[in-house]
């Protein structure tokens, strides 16, 4: 790319400087799901791998697709190509992806099933993903940050209990109402595995980690505190105990006005914002606490046209006066034209 980026010669990637609280004239930019189906080079590698999971566990191919958007667009950060559900799979839960329907797991409906999958858990299941981290780190320039991630316990638990994504996370909400001890036991397994997994990613070479709580918005305030804030706080503490300098981004999607409480309660260094949040509120109540990341609507990026430049300008105007990383409010859509991503970068960096 011949467009200027937010990278500087300070020795620290601009992305990490923003997460440390520095306001930059040109915000660093990366996109959630930036390694994915909108790229023809990704589709070629995905076909070679044979399946999504096979791609996740093939270090050669997973490293390649992690690096593809960096080569093409010069984003300020790469994010590990993987999936949040490798954690329940590491615990011994059977995982597969149904074509066109998303992930499937054998549901954890009772204590016996939880004990069964826990007994089946084996050391080393995530080693191929850690090898991907090492290979990407060796290939990235020093100006490009590298992000690892995991799913937040609440969101991962919703898939473990239901065996699939659901519109309202009803199976998980029913289980914690009927048997809170069992649901807490599931959360405990996820917390412990996630701490170990994130610490291993950092040891292998990532610079920062993001905790995705995609279904945080499904909970009322009290349940949000119990199942979103408290488990995430424990993960943050578990990572900081080993890697105190690593920046941690939280993404409690849909939490809205509860995000300031989430920031204070979890201790995350930064927070990612969904597209639907009120930007004035986010600037005044959230960015005053921590750096923010977001929050362009992926649909606007897919649509392109003058509306794209207008919305990019609106996002920059809302958050550009403080520490800020430009991103989407959720993952890039698979049918997004590459030209629109190029147009976005020109608008952000121009």
Largest sheet: 7 strands, parallel
Coarse structural class: alpha/beta
Strand content: 5-15%
Radius of gyration: 19 Å
- The overall average pLDDT, rounded, is 95
- Tell me how many strands there are: 9
Order of helices and strands: HHHHEHEEHHEHHHEHEHEHEHHEH
Helix content: 40-55%
Number of helices: 16
Which regions have little confidence, pLDDT < 50, spanning 5+ residues? Answer: 1-5
The order of strands across the largest sheet is: 1-4-5-6-7-8-9
Q: Alpha-carbon distance between the termini?
A: 13 Å
Overall geometry comes to globular
Architecture overview:
Helices cover 51% and strands 12% of the residues. The chain has 350 residues and is α/β, with parallel strands linked by helices. The longest helix is centred in the middle third of the chain and has 25 residues, at 180-204.
What key phrases describe this protein's structure?
disordered N terminus, 350 residues, 12% strand, 7-stranded parallel beta sheet, 16 helices, alpha/beta
Short précis:
The chain is α/β, with parallel strands linked by helices and 350 residues long.
List the helices and strands and how they pair.
Elements: H1 14-19, H2 40-49, H3 52-56, H4 59-73, E1 77-79, H5 86-90, E2 95-98, E3 102-105, H6 111-120, H7 127-139, E4 145-151, H8 153-162, H9 170-178, H10 180-204, E5 208-213, H11 221-242, E6 247-252, H12 259-266, E7 270-272, H13 279-286, E8 292-296, H14 298-303, H15 305-319, E9 324-328, H16 338-349
Parallel strand pairs: 1-4, 4-5, 5-6, 6-7, 7-8, 8-9
Antiparallel strand pairs: 2-3
Helix pairs in contact: 2-4, 4-7, 8-9, 8-10, 9-10, 10-11, 11-12, 15-16
């Amino acid at each position: 790319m011949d467009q200027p980026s937010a990278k500087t010669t300070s020795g620290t990637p601009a992305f990490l400087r923003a997460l440390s609280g520095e306001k930059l004239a040109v915000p660093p930019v990366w996109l959630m799901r930036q390694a994915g189906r909108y790229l023809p080079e990704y589709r070629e590698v995905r076909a070679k791998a044979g399946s999504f999971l096979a791609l996740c566990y093939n270090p050669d191919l997973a490293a390649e697709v992690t690096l593809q958007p960096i080569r093409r667009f010069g984003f300020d950060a790469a994010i590990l190509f993987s999936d949040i559900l490798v954690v329940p799979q590491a615990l011994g839960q059977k995982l597969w992806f149904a074509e066109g329907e998303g992930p499937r797991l054998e549901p954890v409906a009772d204590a016996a099933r939880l004990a069964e999958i826990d007994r089946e858990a084996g050391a080393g299941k995530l080693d191929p993903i850690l090898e991907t981290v090492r290979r990407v780190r060796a290939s990235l320039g020093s100006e490009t940050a590298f992000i690892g991630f995991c799913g937040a316990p609440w969101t991962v638990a919703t898939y473990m209990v239901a065996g699939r994504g659901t519109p309202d996370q009803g199976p998980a909400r029913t289980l914690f109402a009927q048997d809170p001890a069992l649901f807490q036991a599931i959360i405990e397994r996820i917390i412990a595995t996630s701490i170990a997994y994130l610490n291993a990613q950092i040891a292998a070479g990532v610079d920062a980690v993001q905790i995705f709580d995609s279904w945080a918005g499904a909970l009322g305030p009290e349940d949000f505190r119990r199942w979103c804030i408290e488990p995430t706080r424990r993960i943050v503490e578990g990572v900081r105990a080993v890697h105190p300098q690593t920046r941690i981004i939280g993404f409690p999607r849909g939490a809205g006005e509860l995000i300031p409480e989430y920031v204070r309660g979890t201790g995350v260094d930064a927070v990612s914002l969904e597209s639907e949040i009120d930007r004035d509120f986010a600037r005044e109540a959230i960015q005053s606490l921590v750096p923010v990341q977001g929050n362009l609507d992926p649909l606007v990026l897919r649509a392109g046209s003058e509306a794209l430049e207008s919305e990019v300008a609106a996002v920059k105007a809302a958050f550009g006066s403080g520490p800020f990383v430009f991103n989407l409010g959720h993952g890039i859509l698979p049918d997004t034209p590459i030209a629109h991503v190029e147009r976005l970068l020109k608008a952000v960096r121009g």
